[in-house]
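Batch manifest, entry 17 of 40.
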Amino acid sequence: MKQYLNLMEKILTEGELRNNRTGIDTISVFGLQAKYDLQQGFPLVTTKKVFFKGVVHELLWFLAGDTNIQYLVKNNVRIWNEWAFERYKKTDFYHGESQLEYIEKIKNDDQFAAQFGDLGPIYGHQWRNSNGVDQLKEVIAGIKNNPNSRRLIVDCWNPQEISEMALPPCHTFFQFYVSNNGQTLNLQLYQRSADMFLGVPFNIASYSLLLQLVAQECGLEAGTFVHTIGDGHIYVNHLDQVKLQLTRPPYPLSKITIKPFASIFDVKFEDIELVDYQSHPLIKGMVAV
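Output type: C-alpha coordinates
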Protein backbone atom coordinates (compact mmCIF):
# COMPACT_ATOMS: atom_id res chain seq x y z
CA MET A 1 0.00 0.00 0.00
CA LYS A 2 2.92 2.32 -0.67
CA GLN A 3 0.79 4.12 -3.27
CA TYR A 4 -1.62 5.35 -0.58
CA LEU A 5 1.15 6.29 1.83
CA ASN A 6 2.98 8.19 -0.93
CA LEU A 7 -0.11 10.32 -1.54
CA MET A 8 -0.29 11.29 2.14
CA GLU A 9 3.40 12.16 2.15
CA LYS A 10 2.88 14.31 -0.96
CA ILE A 11 0.06 16.21 0.74
CA LEU A 12 2.15 16.82 3.87
CA THR A 13 5.08 18.16 1.85
CA GLU A 14 3.34 19.97 -1.01
CA GLY A 15 -0.17 20.74 0.22
CA GLU A 16 -1.72 24.13 0.90
CA LEU A 17 -3.69 25.09 3.99
CA ARG A 18 -7.37 25.59 3.17
CA ASN A 19 -10.56 26.30 5.08
CA ASN A 20 -13.83 24.56 4.25
CA ARG A 21 -17.47 24.16 5.27
CA THR A 22 -16.68 21.87 8.26
CA GLY A 23 -14.76 24.55 10.16
CA ILE A 24 -11.69 22.27 10.41
CA ASP A 25 -8.91 23.32 8.07
CA THR A 26 -7.21 20.88 5.70
CA ILE A 27 -3.88 20.52 3.99
CA SER A 28 -4.81 19.85 0.38
CA VAL A 29 -3.42 18.91 -3.03
CA PHE A 30 -5.51 19.01 -6.19
CA GLY A 31 -5.14 16.22 -8.71
CA LEU A 32 -3.83 12.91 -7.36
CA GLN A 33 -3.84 9.38 -8.72
CA ALA A 34 -2.86 5.91 -7.53
CA LYS A 35 -3.18 2.50 -9.18
CA TYR A 36 -3.76 -0.76 -7.30
CA ASP A 37 -3.15 -4.05 -9.13
CA LEU A 38 -5.56 -6.59 -7.64
CA GLN A 39 -3.49 -9.37 -9.15
CA GLN A 40 -0.91 -8.52 -6.48
CA GLY A 41 -3.41 -8.76 -3.60
CA PHE A 42 -6.36 -6.93 -2.12
CA PRO A 43 -5.45 -3.28 -1.36
CA LEU A 44 -6.70 -3.04 2.21
CA VAL A 45 -4.52 -0.59 4.14
CA THR A 46 -2.20 -2.37 6.60
CA THR A 47 -0.54 0.57 8.39
CA LYS A 48 -3.67 0.83 10.54
CA LYS A 49 -6.52 -1.60 11.05
CA VAL A 50 -9.42 -0.97 8.64
CA PHE A 51 -12.97 -1.96 9.61
CA PHE A 52 -13.50 -4.35 6.71
CA LYS A 53 -16.90 -5.47 7.99
CA GLY A 54 -18.06 -1.88 7.49
CA VAL A 55 -16.64 -1.80 3.96
CA VAL A 56 -18.59 -4.92 2.99
CA HIS A 57 -21.88 -3.92 4.60
CA GLU A 58 -21.74 -0.43 3.11
CA LEU A 59 -21.08 -1.80 -0.38
CA LEU A 60 -23.94 -4.32 -0.10
CA TRP A 61 -26.12 -1.44 1.09
CA PHE A 62 -25.18 0.54 -2.03
CA LEU A 63 -25.80 -2.47 -4.27
CA ALA A 64 -29.28 -2.88 -2.78
CA GLY A 65 -30.09 0.74 -3.68
CA ASP A 66 -30.71 1.42 0.02
CA THR A 67 -30.31 4.91 1.48
CA ASN A 68 -31.66 4.33 4.99
CA ILE A 69 -29.07 3.77 7.72
CA GLN A 70 -31.16 1.19 9.62
CA TYR A 71 -29.50 -1.72 7.79
CA LEU A 72 -26.06 -0.37 8.70
CA VAL A 73 -27.04 0.37 12.29
CA LYS A 74 -28.41 -3.13 12.80
CA ASN A 75 -25.08 -4.49 11.57
CA ASN A 76 -23.08 -2.21 13.90
CA VAL A 77 -21.72 -0.07 11.08
CA ARG A 78 -21.57 3.55 12.22
CA ILE A 79 -19.95 5.31 9.28
CA TRP A 80 -23.11 7.22 8.23
CA ASN A 81 -24.50 7.94 11.71
CA GLU A 82 -23.26 11.53 11.96
CA TRP A 83 -24.75 12.53 8.61
CA ALA A 84 -28.15 11.01 9.39
CA PHE A 85 -28.21 12.57 12.86
CA GLU A 86 -27.35 16.02 11.49
CA ARG A 87 -30.19 15.64 9.02
CA TYR A 88 -32.58 14.66 11.82
CA LYS A 89 -31.52 17.64 13.96
CA LYS A 90 -32.82 19.98 11.27
CA THR A 91 -36.36 18.61 11.54
CA ASP A 92 -39.13 19.89 13.80
CA PHE A 93 -39.20 16.48 15.51
CA TYR A 94 -35.76 16.86 17.08
CA HIS A 95 -36.05 17.57 20.81
CA GLY A 96 -32.47 17.51 22.01
CA GLU A 97 -31.84 13.77 21.82
CA SER A 98 -28.21 12.67 21.79
CA GLN A 99 -26.81 10.89 18.76
CA LEU A 100 -26.72 7.67 20.80
CA GLU A 101 -30.43 8.01 21.65
CA TYR A 102 -31.22 8.73 18.00
CA ILE A 103 -29.31 5.65 16.80
CA GLU A 104 -31.05 3.41 19.35
CA LYS A 105 -34.41 4.57 18.01
CA ILE A 106 -33.26 3.92 14.44
CA LYS A 107 -32.23 0.41 15.45
CA ASN A 108 -35.35 -0.55 17.38
CA ASP A 109 -38.21 1.53 15.96
CA ASP A 110 -38.96 0.71 12.32
CA GLN A 111 -41.46 3.53 11.94
CA PHE A 112 -39.01 6.09 13.32
CA ALA A 113 -36.24 4.69 11.09
CA ALA A 114 -38.44 4.89 8.01
CA GLN A 115 -39.19 8.54 8.74
CA PHE A 116 -35.83 9.77 10.01
CA GLY A 117 -33.16 7.29 8.91
CA ASP A 118 -33.01 8.15 5.25
CA LEU A 119 -30.10 10.11 3.78
CA GLY A 120 -31.80 11.16 0.58
CA PRO A 121 -30.92 9.98 -2.95
CA ILE A 122 -27.25 9.21 -2.23
CA TYR A 123 -25.02 6.53 -3.75
CA GLY A 124 -27.25 3.47 -3.70
CA HIS A 125 -30.15 5.41 -5.18
CA GLN A 126 -27.99 6.85 -7.96
CA TRP A 127 -26.43 3.47 -8.77
CA ARG A 128 -29.76 1.68 -9.02
CA ASN A 129 -32.40 4.33 -9.76
CA SER A 130 -30.95 7.52 -11.23
CA ASN A 131 -33.95 9.23 -12.77
CA GLY A 132 -35.41 5.76 -13.30
CA VAL A 133 -32.21 4.21 -14.71
CA ASP A 134 -30.50 1.26 -13.03
CA GLN A 135 -27.01 2.39 -14.00
CA LEU A 136 -25.16 -0.52 -12.41
CA LYS A 137 -27.32 -3.20 -13.99
CA GLU A 138 -26.92 -1.53 -17.39
CA VAL A 139 -23.15 -1.32 -16.98
CA ILE A 140 -22.86 -5.00 -16.07
CA ALA A 141 -24.92 -5.89 -19.14
CA GLY A 142 -22.63 -3.66 -21.19
CA ILE A 143 -19.49 -5.39 -19.89
CA LYS A 144 -20.95 -8.76 -20.87
CA ASN A 145 -22.34 -7.77 -24.27
CA ASN A 146 -20.13 -4.89 -25.46
CA PRO A 147 -16.85 -5.10 -23.55
CA ASN A 148 -15.01 -2.59 -25.76
CA SER A 149 -17.54 0.14 -25.01
CA ARG A 150 -16.23 3.45 -23.69
CA ARG A 151 -19.58 4.08 -22.00
CA LEU A 152 -19.32 1.64 -19.10
CA ILE A 153 -19.99 4.41 -16.62
CA VAL A 154 -21.92 5.00 -13.38
CA ASP A 155 -22.40 8.68 -12.46
CA CYS A 156 -23.54 9.73 -8.98
CA TRP A 157 -23.38 13.48 -9.49
CA ASN A 158 -27.05 14.16 -10.20
CA PRO A 159 -27.50 17.97 -10.05
CA GLN A 160 -31.27 17.65 -9.86
CA GLU A 161 -31.03 15.79 -6.55
CA ILE A 162 -27.91 17.18 -4.86
CA SER A 163 -29.94 19.43 -2.57
CA GLU A 164 -31.92 16.43 -1.30
CA MET A 165 -28.82 14.48 -0.21
CA ALA A 166 -27.44 14.47 3.32
CA LEU A 167 -23.99 14.66 1.69
CA PRO A 168 -23.29 15.27 -2.01
CA PRO A 169 -21.34 12.32 -3.42
CA CYS A 170 -17.60 12.44 -2.84
CA HIS A 171 -16.87 9.43 -5.04
CA THR A 172 -18.80 10.75 -7.97
CA PHE A 173 -18.09 8.81 -11.16
CA PHE A 174 -16.63 5.44 -12.09
CA GLN A 175 -15.84 3.67 -15.34
CA PHE A 176 -15.04 0.06 -16.25
CA TYR A 177 -12.54 -1.00 -18.92
CA VAL A 178 -12.09 -4.52 -20.28
CA SER A 179 -8.52 -5.30 -21.39
CA ASN A 180 -6.20 -8.19 -22.33
CA ASN A 181 -8.42 -9.41 -25.17
CA GLY A 182 -11.50 -9.53 -23.03
CA GLN A 183 -9.95 -11.26 -20.03
CA THR A 184 -9.40 -8.52 -17.44
CA LEU A 185 -11.75 -5.95 -15.91
CA ASN A 186 -10.39 -2.63 -14.63
CA LEU A 187 -12.14 0.20 -12.80
CA GLN A 188 -11.35 3.89 -12.48
CA LEU A 189 -13.01 6.11 -9.87
CA TYR A 190 -13.05 9.91 -9.89
CA GLN A 191 -13.40 11.19 -6.34
CA ARG A 192 -14.00 14.92 -6.07
CA SER A 193 -13.18 15.13 -2.34
CA ALA A 194 -11.02 12.67 -0.41
CA ASP A 195 -10.41 12.57 3.35
CA MET A 196 -7.09 10.77 3.06
CA PHE A 197 -6.84 9.53 6.65
CA LEU A 198 -10.39 8.40 7.44
CA GLY A 199 -12.23 7.98 4.18
CA VAL A 200 -9.78 6.90 1.50
CA PRO A 201 -8.81 3.51 2.99
CA PHE A 202 -12.54 2.66 2.91
CA ASN A 203 -12.90 3.97 -0.64
CA ILE A 204 -9.95 1.96 -1.95
CA ALA A 205 -11.26 -1.23 -0.36
CA SER A 206 -14.87 -0.64 -1.39
CA TYR A 207 -14.21 -0.02 -5.08
CA SER A 208 -11.64 -2.82 -5.24
CA LEU A 209 -14.26 -5.17 -3.81
CA LEU A 210 -16.83 -3.84 -6.29
CA LEU A 211 -14.34 -4.52 -9.09
CA GLN A 212 -13.87 -8.10 -7.90
CA LEU A 213 -17.62 -8.69 -7.64
CA VAL A 214 -18.41 -7.33 -11.10
CA ALA A 215 -15.46 -9.19 -12.63
CA GLN A 216 -16.63 -12.45 -11.08
CA GLU A 217 -20.17 -12.01 -12.39
CA CYS A 218 -18.85 -11.25 -15.87
CA GLY A 219 -16.42 -14.17 -15.93
CA LEU A 220 -13.36 -11.90 -15.97
CA GLU A 221 -10.24 -11.42 -13.87
CA ALA A 222 -10.10 -8.35 -11.62
CA GLY A 223 -7.26 -6.13 -12.87
CA THR A 224 -6.40 -2.60 -11.79
CA PHE A 225 -8.30 -0.14 -9.63
CA VAL A 226 -7.34 3.38 -10.66
CA HIS A 227 -8.14 5.98 -7.99
CA THR A 228 -8.24 9.53 -9.33
CA ILE A 229 -8.73 12.27 -6.74
CA GLY A 230 -9.70 15.91 -7.12
CA ASP A 231 -9.19 17.55 -3.71
CA GLY A 232 -7.08 15.14 -1.66
CA HIS A 233 -6.77 16.44 1.87
CA ILE A 234 -5.69 15.75 5.43
CA TYR A 235 -7.63 17.49 8.19
CA VAL A 236 -5.35 19.38 10.58
CA ASN A 237 -6.77 17.44 13.52
CA HIS A 238 -5.50 14.23 11.87
CA LEU A 239 -1.89 15.34 11.40
CA ASP A 240 -0.50 13.46 14.40
CA GLN A 241 -2.34 10.30 13.35
CA VAL A 242 -1.05 10.54 9.78
CA LYS A 243 2.53 11.09 10.93
CA LEU A 244 2.24 8.03 13.18
CA GLN A 245 0.82 5.97 10.34
CA LEU A 246 3.68 6.98 8.04
CA THR A 247 6.21 5.56 10.52
CA ARG A 248 4.72 2.07 10.15
CA PRO A 249 6.01 -0.32 7.47
CA PRO A 250 3.24 -1.92 5.38
CA TYR A 251 2.48 -5.62 5.75
CA PRO A 252 1.91 -7.94 2.76
CA LEU A 253 -1.49 -7.56 1.12
CA SER A 254 -4.47 -9.71 2.02
CA LYS A 255 -6.76 -11.57 -0.37
CA ILE A 256 -10.52 -11.80 -0.91
CA THR A 257 -12.51 -14.92 -1.63
CA ILE A 258 -16.11 -14.72 -2.83
CA LYS A 259 -18.48 -17.66 -3.01
CA PRO A 260 -19.98 -18.36 -6.47
CA PHE A 261 -23.06 -16.29 -7.30
CA ALA A 262 -25.28 -15.54 -10.28
CA SER A 263 -25.78 -11.82 -9.66
CA ILE A 264 -23.93 -9.35 -7.46
CA PHE A 265 -27.32 -8.17 -6.26
CA ASP A 266 -27.76 -11.55 -4.54
CA VAL A 267 -24.42 -11.51 -2.70
CA LYS A 268 -24.60 -11.62 1.11
CA PHE A 269 -22.11 -10.57 3.75
CA GLU A 270 -21.15 -14.15 4.61
CA ASP A 271 -20.27 -14.83 0.95
CA ILE A 272 -17.21 -12.55 1.18
CA GLU A 273 -14.12 -13.55 3.16
CA LEU A 274 -11.00 -11.54 3.90
CA VAL A 275 -7.95 -13.84 3.99
CA ASP A 276 -4.53 -13.25 5.59
CA TYR A 277 -5.14 -9.65 6.66
CA GLN A 278 -2.37 -8.42 8.93
CA SER A 279 -2.31 -4.81 10.10
CA HIS A 280 -0.89 -2.42 12.62
CA PRO A 281 -3.30 -1.28 15.38
CA LEU A 282 -6.26 1.00 14.79
CA ILE A 283 -5.64 4.77 14.78
CA LYS A 284 -8.73 6.79 15.69
CA GLY A 285 -9.75 10.17 14.35
CA MET A 286 -12.86 12.36 14.47
CA VAL A 287 -14.89 12.74 11.30
CA ALA A 288 -15.53 16.29 10.07
CA VAL A 289 -19.25 16.64 9.31
